[in-house]
């Protein structure tokens, strides 16, 4: 839930977001995905304002987490917000993608810090290689897949059931899977 393409927000954007959060709660939406950060800092007051508009909804703090200067400290802060039950992160450190094993090591560090207070979800560039590494290390219990589940990895393309099945099989630890055909 955002009013702009970045992770920051301002007073003019908070009003419609609070209104939307309240509406989502009224119609029975299961939860929100929301989060704010600016210049490496968590915008906790803004987050709490939106959450107050929908006090019964569960919340996943989204990938604004990846822009934070001290993500381990942020896990401590976010786990103290009762509505937040998940944090979505790509496991990329300081903007450097790095190989899948490095990302999984970082995700493991986040999961260890979170304990059972919040669930760390791997998301962002979770392709077959990353899925295999997650299956191998079991660094996180949940995965969010975007472009890797779409034909041609285009964010506008339809989700391809065969790609989802393959990623699911990889995450379930099945071996010897046939390769997916390359997209045209």
- Number of H/I helices: 6
Helix/strand/pairing category: alpha/beta
In the sheet with the most strands, the strands line up as 1-4-5-6-7
Q: Average the pLDDT over all residues and give the rounded result.
A: 86
CATH class: Alpha Beta
As a whole number of angstroms, the C-alpha radius of gyration is 17 Å
Task: Provide a concise account of the structure shown.
The chain has helices at 11-26, 44-52, 71-79, 100-114, 128-137, 161-171; strands at residues 31-34, 37-38, 41-42, 58-61, 84-89, 119-123, 142-144. It is of the alpha/beta class.
Structural summary, described in words:
With 184 residues, this protein is of the alpha/beta class. The protein has one domain: TIM Barrel. The chain has 6 helices and 7 strands, in the order αβββαβαβαβαβα. It has helices at 11-26, 44-52, 71-79, 100-114, 128-137, 161-171, and strands at residues 31-34, 37-38, 41-42, 58-61, 84-89, 119-123, 142-144. The strands form 2 sheets. It has a 5-stranded parallel beta sheet, with helices on one face. A two-stranded antiparallel ribbon has the order 2-3. A hairpin with a 2-residue loop joins β2 (37-38) and β3. α1 (11-26) packs parallel to α2, α4 packs across α5 (128-137) and α5 (128-137) runs parallel beside α6. Mean pLDDT is 86; it is low at 1-5.
Write the topology of this structure:
Blueprint: H1 11-26, E1 31-34, E2 37-38, E3 41-42, H2 44-52, E4 58-61, H3 71-79, E5 84-89, H4 100-114, E6 119-123, H5 128-137, E7 142-144, H6 161-171
Helix pairs in contact: 1-2, 3-4, 4-5, 5-6
């Amino acid at each position: 839930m955002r009013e702009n393409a970045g992770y920051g927000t301002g007073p003019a954007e908070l009003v419609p977001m609070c209104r939307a959060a309240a509406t989502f709660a009224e119609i029975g939406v299961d939860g929100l995905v929301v989060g704010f950060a600016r210049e490496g800092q968590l915008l906790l007051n803004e987050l709490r304002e939106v959450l107050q508009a929908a006090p019964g909804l569960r919340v996943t703090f989204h990938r604004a987490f990846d822009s934070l200067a001290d993500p381990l400290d942020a896990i401590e802060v976010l786990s103290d917000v009762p509505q937040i039950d998940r944090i979505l992160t790509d496991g990329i450190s300081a903007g450097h993608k790095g190989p899948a094993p490095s990302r999984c090591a970082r995700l493991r560090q986040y999961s260890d810090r979170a304990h059972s207070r919040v669930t760390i979800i791997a998301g962002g560039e979770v392709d077959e290689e990353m899925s295999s590494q997650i299956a191998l290390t079991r660094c996180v219990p949940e995965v969010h897949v975007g472009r890797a589940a779409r034909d041609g990895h285009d964010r506008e393309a339809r989700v391809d059931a065969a790609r989802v099945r393959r990623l699911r099989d990889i995450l379930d630890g099945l071996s010897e899977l046939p390769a997916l055909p390359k997209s045209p």
